[in-house]
Design brief:
Layout lengths: L1 H13 L13 H4 L4 H30 L8 H23 L9 H5 L2 H12 L4 H31 L9 H16 L8
Helix pairs in contact: 1-7, 3-4, 3-6, 3-7, 4-6, 6-7, 7-8
C-alpha cells in the first residue's frame, strides 16, 4: 500500500509528467484558451483516459500478447486502445458530470502525448498492476494540477501590467519553468 501511495505522489508531484518529463506539454497552449470549467473537464478526461487505457493495455499485454509471444507488437496495440477509448470516455464522463462540457476535447486528448507516455513508461517497468494504476492516476492528477496552476497564472498575468515583449507565450514559458523549479522542491518529500 505504501508503494502505491509513493508512486501516486511521485507521479503527481515529484516526477510530474508535464513539468519534469515534457509529456503532455503539447496540449497546454490550446488548453489556455479554454474556459475554467472546460479546463477541469480536460483534466478529468485526461486522468480517466490515462487510467482506462493503462488498465486495458495491461490486460491485453498480459493475457493476449505475452502468452502468444507477441510483445513486440505492444505499441501497435497501445495506440489504437487510446484512440478507441476517447469517444466512449467523453460520452461516459459527460453523463457522469453533466455540469461540465466535454464536447470538443477530442483533438486535445488525441494529441496528448502524455497519455501514451504514461502507458509506455508504466508498462515498460513491469512492476505490476498496482504500480501501473498508481502511476497513471498520479500522472493524470498531476496533469490536471498543472493545467489549473497554469490557468491561475495566466489569469493573474492578464490583470497585471507586464512589458509587451513578455506577453503571451514568453510569460507562459517563464511561468512553466518556475513552476517546474517549484515542483523540484518536492524531491526530498519521499525518502525510500
Amino acid at each position: 500500500m505504501t508503494d502505491f501511495i509513493y508512486t501516486l505522489l511521485s507521479a503527481a508531484l515529484i516526477n510530474n509528467f508535464v513539468l519534469q518529463q515534457p509529456l503532455g506539454v503539447d496540449s497546454l497552449p490550446q488548453a489556455n484558451a479554454l474556459a475554467r470549467h472546460r479546463l477541469h473537464a480536460l483534466g478529468i478526461a485526461t486522468c480517466w483516459l490515462m487510467l482506462a487505457s493503462s488498465v486495458i493495455s495491461y490486460l491485453i499485454l498480459e493475457y493476449v500478447l505475452s502468452p502468444l509471444n507477441l510483445t513486440y507488437l505492444r505499441l501497435f496495440v497501445y495506440l489504437p486502445v487510446i484512440v478507441l477509448l476517447i469517444a466512449p470516455s467523453l460520452t461516459g464522463l459527460s453523463t457522469l458530470f453533466p455540469r461540465l462540457d466535454f464536447s470538443g476535447l477530442w483533438p486535445l486528448l488525441l494529441g496528448n502525448a502524455g497519455i501514451a507516455g504514461v502507458l509506455l513508461i508504466g508498462l515498460a517497468t513491469e512492476r505490476g498492476f498496482g504500480h501501473l494504476i498508481a502511476l497513471s492516476l498520479g500522472a493524470g492528477l498531476g496533469f490536471w494540477l498543472v493545467l489549473s496552476l497554469l490557468d491561475d497564472l495566466m489569469q493573474r498575468v492578464r490583470s497585471e501590467d507586464i512589458p509587451q515583449a513578455f506577453r503571451g507565450m514568453p510569460i507562459q514559458l517563464i511561468g512553466t519553468g518556475l513552476m517546474g523549479l517549484a515542483f523540484l522542491g518536492f524531491n526530498g518529500l519521499i525518502k525510500a
